[in-house]
Model the fold of this input.
Amino acid sequence: MDKKTYSSNAGISWGTASLIFGITALILSFIPCVGFLAVILDAPAIFFAIIGLSKAKAENAPTGLVKAALVVSIAAALIIMVNIMLVFGIYGLLVFWD
Done:
């Protein structure tokens, strides 16, 4: 069997920060009135995950944590977008209701 050996822990701190921001944004995205504030946390989470992934790949470090943070952050972004579309859709229906 061929075992992978990792030479460093590069990108782990970026991945941890991204995971914390992403989980917080994911939780906030389910709250209707506070969901818009999740964008403030989710944008840096995606940015941090991309930086952490590039650093980890450059240094031959493990990328599992960073990939998980990226998935959580993208899931939060999708939920935020759906939430925004629903809120503005309902608002549009109420404004133009005859």
